[in-house]
């Protein structure tokens, strides 16, 4: 199937001086990726950015690029317009080289390299400074990485010019800030991130938060609304202000990590056990990352979750990449528990959009699980990375707290569920029938797996793992 880029206006509410100004409309694009399972900057990484490096180990980039979407907006940098990926999993701003005339930049001699996907994608260049415009926000001197060489995994082909990080302005999270302070002294501040510069403007009255509505209307990823705001909630979702505050774990982290309190599949709790000392039983450390189109979860959790979906089967490719094949019209409801609130995941988000698979000389339609297993995240301080597969189901707020560091000002997240379980279950049949109207027929996953296995000597099947005893009720 061919997928065209979709676009809409992004409402971003901004403020300067001592009062709020009128809302500004920006282009907010949801870009469908290629159906080829290859490398893409954030779909191949778990959204890990310690000192500019991210990755989940070998093999990840083969299983996470499945017709997903990335979210971007427009900025003006040095008088030139750029389309940048919005990423709560990193801090810095960088732009790729292009064929247009150079912008009005002050280019330094400070080099920086940032790696993603275990080094399968990377950008490197020198730090530059230029004026930045985003909506009605202006920053007169914004540091960014002026990329000179890169292996971006396909962002350029999708019309993405760079990345705008929306995480914390710590040296441990910002390669730019780290490089600037290392060469120019710890008191140097011109290497600050975009958000740090915006939040430092006078008259903001402590509204140091951003909010996302990554809504969609159906399986084809059309858009119904959708917004990114700074310092103010979207009118429709103002109730998020009363949602539980999900404080960082561990406290003082340089990422948007918090505790997941449980997962249920069809109402049955999964057994969860953290690898980190001090995390209560039944909880996991989770990163919320808009820059990751999918979700990366521990392999044991992935297997337990998908084994409870009727008709789902698992197999491995070349002895190392494990995938789950599931009925395209599943209506199983999976819920994630944060702060005592259960957040339903739309059944459509449990799988990637239907794909065409050839087996036994015939074409069939198949649906692969969208939550990938990854056990390498713990080395980066968390156990799961919940990207857009999860975040499409919530209105999410990321509050940086009081910059003075008081207890009352600790950073926190808030989530407001947007998916109604009963409505979502009722939508699946009609939506998937439209999606698959012009596709080959779907057959039972077990039968398709038999045909695939007969043709692929490097493919092996495995019975779904035995479900462990139910955990204590959440």
TrEMBL record:
Compositionally biased region (Polar residues): 36-46
A Pfam family hit: Asp
SUPFAM superfamilies, sorted: Acid proteases
Region (Disordered): 36-59
CDD domains: pepsin_like
Any single GO BP term: proteolysis
Record key words, sorted: Aspartyl protease, Hydrolase, Protease
Limits of the Peptidase A1 domain: 71-408
GO terms assigned for molecular function: aspartic-type endopeptidase activity
Family per record: Belongs to the peptidase A1 family.
The protein, known as: Peptidase A1 domain-containing protein
Organism name: Candolleomyces aberdarensis
Lineage of source species: Eukaryota, Fungi, Dikarya, Basidiomycota, Agaricomycotina
């Amino acid at each position: 199937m061919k997928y065209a880029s979709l676009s809409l206006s992004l409402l971003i509410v901004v403020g300067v001086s001592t009062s709020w100004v009128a809302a500004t409309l920006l282009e907010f694009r949801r870009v469908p990726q290629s159906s080829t399972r290859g490398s893409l900057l954030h779909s191949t990484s778990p959204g890990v950015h310690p000192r500019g490096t991210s990755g989940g180990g070998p093999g990840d980039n083969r299983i996470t690029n499945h017709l997903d979407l990335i979210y971007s907006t427009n900025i003006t940098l040095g008088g030139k317009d750029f389309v940048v990926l919005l990423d709560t999993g990193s801090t810095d701003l960088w732009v790729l080289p292009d064929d247009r005339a150079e912008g009005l930049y002050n280019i330094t001699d400070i080099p920086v390299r940032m790696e993603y996907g275990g080094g399968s994608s990377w950008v490197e260049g020198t730090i530059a400074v230029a004026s930045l415009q985003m909506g009605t926000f202006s920053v007169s001197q914004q540091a960014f990485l002026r990329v000179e060489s890169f292996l971006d995994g396909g962002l350029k082909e999708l019309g993405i010019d760079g990345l705008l990080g929306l995480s914390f302005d710590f040296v441990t999270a910002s390669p730019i800030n780290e490089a600037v302070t290392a060469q120019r002294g710890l008191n140097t501040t011109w290497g600050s991130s975009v958000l740090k510069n915006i939040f430092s403007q006078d008259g903001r009255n402590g509204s140091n938060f951003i909010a996302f509505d990554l809504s969609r209307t159906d399986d084809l990823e059309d858009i119904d609304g959708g917004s990114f705001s700074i310092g103010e909630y979207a009118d429709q979702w103002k109730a998020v202000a009363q949602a539980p505050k999900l404080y960082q774990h561990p406290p003082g982290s340089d990422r948007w990590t918090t505790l997941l309190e449980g997962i249920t599949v069809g109402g049955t709790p999964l057994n969860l056990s953290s690898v980190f000392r001090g995390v209560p039983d039944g909880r996991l450390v989770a990163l919320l990352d808009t820059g990751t189109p999918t979700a990366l979860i521990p392999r044991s959790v992935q297997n337990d979750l998908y084994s409870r979906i009727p008709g789902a089967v698992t197999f491995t490719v070349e002895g190392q990449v494990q995938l789950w094949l599931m009925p395209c019209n599943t209506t199983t409801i999976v819920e994630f528990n944060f702060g005592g609130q259960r957040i339903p995941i739309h059944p459509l988000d449990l799988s990637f959009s239907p794909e065409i698979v050839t087996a036994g000389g015939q074409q069939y339609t198949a649906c692969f699980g969208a939550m990938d297993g990854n056990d390498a995240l713990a080395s980066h301080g968390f156990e799961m990375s919940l990207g857009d597969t999860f975040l499409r189901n919530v209105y999410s707020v990321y509050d940086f707290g009081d910059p003075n560091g008081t207890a009352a000002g600790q950073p926190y997240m808030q989530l407001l569920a947007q998916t109604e379980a009963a409505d979502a279950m009722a939508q699946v049949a009609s939506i998937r029938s439209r999606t698959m109207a012009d596709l080959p027929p779907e057959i039972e996953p077990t039968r398709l797996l038999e045909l695939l296995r007969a043709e692929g000597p490097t493919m092996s099947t495995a019975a779904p793992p035995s479900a462990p005893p139910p955990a204590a009720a959440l």
